[in-house]
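Changelog-linked ticket: nicotinamide-adenine-dinucleotide example.
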Amino acid sequence: MSSSDLPKVVEPTCAVPRLLEGQKALVTGASSGIGRAVAVALGQAGADVVVNWVSGEDAAEEVVHEIGAAGARAYAYRADITSEEDVAAMFAKMLQDFGGIDILVNNAGIQKDAPIHEMTLEQWNKVISVNLTGQFLCAREAIREFRRRGVVTDVSCAAGKIIFMSSVHETIPWAGHVNYAASKGGAMLMMKSIAQEVASQRIRVNGIAPGAIKTPINESAWKTPEALDALLKLIPYKRIGLPEDVARVAAWLASDQADYLTGTTVVVDGGMMLYPGFSEGG
Ligand code: NAD
């Protein structure tokens, strides 16, 4: 089946239930792609949202506007998550403006692809610093505040929730992207180790592993019909994912509906991890 034979993809418009009323959320890298959709979905679910951005100020303001239209408060905040100072200042402002934090979505991430024999140390370091160190810095700040405040039963069963935006490449090796796959595998074990460490304080820490989602990060994989056809061979569900597919899962995972989930990864991939090469062979 080629992309032209596929049924039209219906933009998911299902309403997000207001499961996060009264909660405060911070989403990193929220001016585009998955982060943008997650920030909007959390707002639609009733949470007030800090929209972190490092590039794309206008786009971040649009996200703020969209969350406001959904009846929640939001503001955009520029911070480079690889900077300890920026991250500390971002959390300090959030605590001052919103009075606390209930949900952190560690979403920001980048790719700097190259074959291993050509990969520069700069490409390696850049990806590790955003995808791994940046996620550590934000998680540490959030946990400090969750521990200080503890559970507020009127708000949530948990003292706080963290969602790491991982990737199917926390599991699937990825030639030509060793820095990215290493960062996502590392983020997965960071997520699990933190979850183990703080579970007794009623802090829930989980990951989401998206498959192929149509965003700027992977434009070359869906921009042309040929590229899309090649991509769809890897997706049993035969459509590329949309940011909203991930966003609705994030809103649910952050809510008390998911209160008994911690230290786990929810895979949102249209079956990409089902070894599609075996569907007609093996
Ligand atoms: P994207 O490029 O639209 O989003 C990444 C965001 O991170 C951008 O807004 C960017 O400005 C921000 N960012 C980069 N460096 C930053 C920094 N130092 N500080 C703060 N923000 C920074 O791409 P996306 O697809 O929406 O990616 C979001 C997350 O989802 C990433 O972690 C990515 O690895 C993950 N992911 C994406 C896919 C996919 O198919 N699109 C699949 C699996 C995982």
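Closing comment: Example verified and attached. The domain at 20-210+241-256 is CATH 3.40.50.720 (Rossmann fold). The chain has one domain: 20-210+241-256.
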